[in-house]
Amino acid sequence: TGAATDPNVSAHHGLTRSTYEGPTGIVGVLHTLAGDDGLDAVSLWAGVPHYLAATTYLAGAVALVERASRLLQLDVPLEGLARDAASQLDDITQVVRDEEELAAYVGELEERVDDQDEDVESRQGTFLPPTPVSGEQLAAEFERYLRDRGGDS
């Protein structure tokens, strides 16, 4: 997901223009300051499952580097990182598959995301932050799996 301060930059790179007008964080402040100085600003976000927030999520890193390299017109070799990301996703899938409660929980999350995606499509051009979902149980199980595996990423 990404946003840009300039409508032409947004259209050219397939980004959105945020319509949010409330309290903001540092990204909003930087976008405003850049726009005030006549600079284009672009911000990128990678969707990371909240229940994996305590671990490095390699698929998110791949997505960010791929998009940033396209925006900057750079050739960045990603084969190794992409392989590691695919392996990590396989591990995550296995953890979820092995735990019936986790599988049901992830299925519920996927359903919510699908519903949210439909809502976003119906409001094209409007950035909607994800609906918060409690993930303590899944996070604890995934962290246990990583500890048992001897990995920390």
Describe the structure.
- It is a single chain.
- The chain is mostly helical and 153 residues long.
- The protein is 59% helix and 4% strand.
- The chain is built from six helices and two strands, in the order E-H-H-E-H-H-H-H.
- A two-stranded antiparallel sheet has the order 1-2.
- Helix 4 (79-98) packs across helix 5 (100-122).
- The longest helix is centred in the last third of the chain and has 23 residues, at 100-122.
- The radius of gyration is 18 Å and the shape is globular.
- The two termini are 23 Å apart.
- The model is unreliable at 126-134 (pLDDT under 50).
Core attributes:
single chain, 153 residues, mainly alpha, two-stranded antiparallel sheet, 6 helices, 4% strand
Arrangement of strands in the largest sheet: 1-2
Shape verdict? globular
Please outline the major beta sheet: 2 strands, antiparallel
| Total count of strands | 2
The whole-angstrom Rg is: 18 Å
Percentage of residues assigned to helices: 55-70%
Chart the SSEs and their pairings.
Blueprint: E1 2-4, H1 7-13, H2 26-36, E2 42-44, H3 58-72, H4 79-98, H5 100-122, H6 136-149
Question: What is the compact description of this entry?
Answer:
The chain is mostly helical. The chain has helices at 7-13, 26-36, 58-72, 79-98, 100-122, 136-149, and strands at residues 2-4, 42-44.
